[in-house]
Amino acid sequence: MPHPPSDPAGRQLARTFRALAALLAVAVLAPAAAAQLRLATWNISNYAGGRDLDLRNAIYAVYNGRSMAPDVFTTQEFTSSAAVAAFLAILNSAPGSPGDWAAAPFIDGPDTDSAFFYRTTRVTYLGTTIVALGSSDLNNQPRNTYRYDIRLLGYLAPSASLGIYSVHFKAQGGTNDAGRRLVEAQRIRDNAQGIDTNGPGSGLPAGFLFLLAGDTNIQTSSEAAYAELVGSQPDNSGRFFDPINSPGVWNNNFAFRFIHTQDPAGAGGMDDRHDQVLIAGALRDQSALDYIGSPTLPYSTTTWNDPNHSYRAWGNDGTSFNLTLTTAGNSMVGPSIAQSLINACAGSGHLPVFLDFRVPGTLGPTPATIDVGTLPLNATASVTLTIANDADTSLWTEAGVSDLLYSLATSGDLATAPGPFAEPATPGPNQHQIAIDTASPGPVTGLVTITSNDPDEPVRLVAVTGQVVAPPACPADVNADGLVTTADVSAFLSAWFASISAGTLQGDFNADGVVTTGDVTSFLQAWFNAIAAGGC
Fold first, then answer.
1. Are residues 328 and 219 in the same domain?
2. Rounded-to-integer distance, Cα 171 and Cα 375, Å
3. What local confidence, expressed as pLDDT, does residue 507 receive?
4. Residue 45 vs residues 112, 313, 316, 403, 509: alpha-carbon distances, Å
């Protein structure tokens, strides 16, 4: 019969501490440089350069242990490549910055444009796609839609890759504003389904995950453009979800005061949730690369510091409804960062939004083949298979790595508990006993198939080999030369020490399924009995 994996109390305690650490990371919003992957989006209001001190302070200053400090940054309303270069210099020179920022090439389209920045020690930039072209046509979207493709550093699979749609939808007012937003939403939804919306090869690559970030200029979840993005359709492969599950009429609605982003500096005050991040369903299923939070729960209506979500409208502590962003007494960011956010808006504009992701677990090394050596007929026999989560905790921390989820299947002479199992990134692997059938003499053959959520290697095979032999007529004649001599003592001890070293059962003389000093005692008794009897 198969044996369950060992999971001592210390391993369970480690899991508990890891879960508490993850909740604490959400609750206190520690700087992203310390853990996880943080994505931010910000419409910086017609940015042509400058605002250096305020931008440095808004992005990297720390208040009560909290900082925006993103790893990936999608921005809107940039006017030129010079503006991108200026902002990149700000990111790399800010006190507290790791100085590892790079920028995607700037594309100059109609009106202002998106710009994309990323930390080279966290992600690999794969390229930019123009999803749709904007124009002044009143039946078209006003600005280009861009998709920025990245991959987590240290991973290779498409499922560790993100297509990030940076958006700046048509503003409220004017002719056909809702229709122009709908057109853009339709093109994004199609592109996320892999449809080539702007020429061959422009669709989202197969297997990529995706999200949308930016200024939607949408005031209610009932608007057609929003319904296009988040609504169920016959092909749901391009569907987006609100990670904080907060539908409703956001405009001028006190209930949503903690997630309003516009306007922190203008006369109208904070009264709209224009800026959002929407995510693919696969980023909310808690299986690999995932949003840190509880995406089925709505955002709190009583506090900005919602422990169920890493999503934040940075700077909005909920005290600014229909007012300029609170500075003195701002409980989220304090007065200095709050004032810098106001100044960075250049008189009117938006707050940034960010959220955190946990990176996928990875399957640690396992042998391609395990040779159990020679096993006695009808012995109780098994071999240990060790499963570890090998994700880079020095880069992401334990709290920033998803559990390795896996199951086991066996064939041939093998059997084990199938699972499913979960292995966190805490020290100490899971150990599984693979039972071996020794009922018949002959070769041991079988495969253990490990199926996991490791994006780079979802299936791995481990072969188990060996030989089941019937007990010899004279057990003390270990070297099978027909004599019982001291050479048999040497042969047994050699096999016994080899078993101890390699974890095999060659030295299991008493056939109890383990190699211990009891096997030495059993052998010596048989050897002395044979010597006393004058041989076998």
1. yes
2. 76
3. 85
4. 9, 16, 18, 40, 79
Q: Are residues 519 and 377 in the same domain?
A: no
Q: How many domains does the chain have?
A: 3
Most distant pair of Cα atoms in the chain: their distance:
110
Give 88: exposed, middle or buried? Use CB within 10 Å, 0-12, 13-18, 19+: middle
Predicted local distance difference test score (pLDDT) of residue 502: 84
Whether residues 259 and 307 share a domain: the answer is yes
**Residue range 245-265, pLDDT digits in tens:** 999 999 999 999 999 999 999
Does the N-terminal peptide bond of residue 2 adopt cis geometry, omega within 30 degrees of 0? no
Where a domain ends, among 470, 489, 513? 470
Contact (Cβ atoms closer than 8 angstroms) between residue 522 and residue 476: no
Q: Give the C-alpha separation, 10 to 424, whole Å.
A: 13
What pLDDT, on a 0 to 100 scale, did the predictor assign at position 436? 95
Residue 486 makes CB contacts below 8 A (sequence gap 6+) with: none
CATH of the domain at 113: 3.60.10.10
AA identity, residue 139: N
- Cis amide linkage into residue 403, ω under 30° from 0: no
The CATH number of the domain where 403 resides is what? Answer: 2.60.40.10
Phi first, then psi: give them for residue 147, nearest 5 degrees.
-120, 120
264 & 293 share domain: yes
Q: Which long-range contacts (CB under 8 A, 24 or more apart) does 136-140 make?
A: 136/110, 138/175, 138/176, 138/180, 139/176, 139/179, 139/180, 139/183, 140/180, 140/183
* 400, 373: one domain: yes
- 270 touches 321 (CB < 8 A): yes
> What are the beta bridge partners of residue 39?
72, 355
Rounded Cα–Cα distance for residues 400 and 422 (Å): 15
Evaluate the CA torsion angle 21, 24, 28, 32 in order and state its sign: positive
CB distance 449 to 459 below 8 Å: yes
| pLDDT value of position 17 | 44
Same domain, 53 and 127: yes
Q: Which domain holds residue 526?
A: 472-536
Domain edge (last residue) among 324, 358, 392: 358
Half-sphere exposure of 417 (CA within 13 A, CB side): 12
Q: What is the mean pLDDT, run by run of 10 residues, along the chain of 536 residues?
A: 40 45 46 72 96 98 97 98 98 97 97 97 98 96 97 96 98 95 97 95 96 98 98 91 98 98 92 98 90 97 97 98 97 98 90 97 96 88 95 92 96 96 91 94 95 97 92 79 86 89 83 87 87 77
Q: Coil, strand or helix: which one is 180?
A: helix
End-to-end CA distance of the chain: 35
- Both structure tokens of 71: 């790893």
Q: Tell me, yes or no, whether 482 and 382 share the same domain.
A: no
| Residues 229 and 350 both lie in one domain | yes
